[in-house]
Design goal:
Structural class: alpha/beta
CATH architecture: 3-Layer(aba) Sandwich
Number of helices: 12
Order of helices and strands: EHEHHHEEHHHEHEHEEEHEHH
Shape: globular
CATH topology: Rossmann fold
Strand content: 5-15%
CATH class: Alpha Beta
Length: about 325
């Protein structure tokens, strides 16, 4: 069974991609879904968010990478076999994690090398290009997952090209700044180009029974993150960038005509605009749980209690809309 894959990606860093994958993994699980979170960013921040240092040290021994994404890739990378059976690290009954690995960055050159060779019907090239997809699907089936969420680094390199080709859908987190807008402008054409080029390569696959992604990379919306709130409105310095998001997304990502009258409140492509929740983040990191699961014992007292409840409602709405846009099963 093919499991839907949703990537969270922006060419701009620091917009909350990892935090979004982390929190949505927990929220979707809380709503009844079984989730695989795949850390395909060599910086491995998602893995560090899920696991404390003691568990990381236990699961990531210094003498090898057998339990990480890189461990699953090693036989293929070395030319000694195909991808290995992936390890799934269970962080809850419903959330499984594909561990990140800084060594993943060494796979970039091979992914760059095999991309043009797919046009020559080279079998190994197709195995390399589909490695992320086959590993994540294998992990998902092992976990009986309903959805796979992928966290990616902020670049347009070969690793992210392969990871996005392995994705059915993409969600784009945005910050209210110039560089997020520029990231959108870079990202849209790249997604369309990679989608078209992968479809051209699919016709040249020499192994009919090899599990390959469709490469649909369908954009299902953007999320505005980390904007300061003052009287329930973004501070004025950010308003100009927020105002540009609907038209930039329509033009750059969807390649559609621009409706200058749209705002993020009226744009159906805007999944949500989320508060910073700045005061809750240190408590959540200390407790090693999402902000909407914080309890008084974690220090969420007084006004923090109301903020925790607000966060739960906000992330529930985000999860519901993403599930609907990605045609997942109904949330409980």
């Amino acid at each position: 069974m093919r499991i839907p894959v949703i990537a969270f990606f922006n060419n701009k860093g620091g917009v909350g991609k990892t935090s979004m994958v982390y929190h949505l993994s927990w929220m979707l699980a809380d709503c009844g879904l079984r989730v695989i979170a795949a850390d395909l960013d060599p910086q491995s921040n998602l893995t560090a968010a899920f696991l404390d240092e003691d568990r990381l040290e236990q699961e990531l021994p210094s003498d090898g990478h057998p339990k990480t994404i890189f461990g699953a890739l090693q036989p293929l990378k070395r030319g000694t076999g195909d991808v290995a059976d992936p390890h799934v690290e269970y962080v809850s009954d419903r959330v499984g994690l594909i561990l990140g690995d800084m060594a993943l960055s060494t796979f970039e050159d091979q992914l760059s090398e095999v991309w043009p060779k797919c046009m020559d019907r080279d079998e190994r090239s197709f195995r390399v290009m589909s490695a992320f997809y086959r590993i994540s699907q294998s992990a998902g089936n092992k976990h009986s997952a309903d959805v796979i969420l992928i966290d990616l680094g902020p670049n347009l390199g070969a690793i992210n090209r392969a990871a996005l080709i392995a994705s059915d859908f993409v969600v784009i987190p945005l910050g209210p700044d110039l560089f997020s807008i520029q990231g959108l402008q870079n990202l849209g054409p790249a997604l369309r180009r990679w989608r078209d080029e992968w479809k051209e390569r699919l016709d040249r696959n020499p192994v009919p029974d090899l599990l390959l992604p469709s490469g649909s990379i369908h954009p299902i919306g953007y999320i505005v993150l980390r904007h300061s709130i003052r009287l329930d409105r973004p501070v004025k310095a950010f308003e100009r960038w927020i105002a540009k998001m609907p038209s930039t997304y329509a033009k750059a990502v969807l390649n559609q005509p621009v409706d200058q009258t749209l705002t993020i409140d009226t744009d159906h492509n805007c999944i949500a605009k989320l508060k910073d929740y700045r005061s809750l983040m240190p408590l959540a990191q200390e407790a090693r749980k999402p902000i909407f699961f914080l309890k008084p014992a974690d220090g969420a007292l007084g006004a923090h209690t109301y903020a925790v409840n607000d966060a739960y409602g906000d992330f529930k709405k985000v999860a519901t809309k993403i599930a609907r846009n990605a045609r997942l099963k109904e949330l409980s």
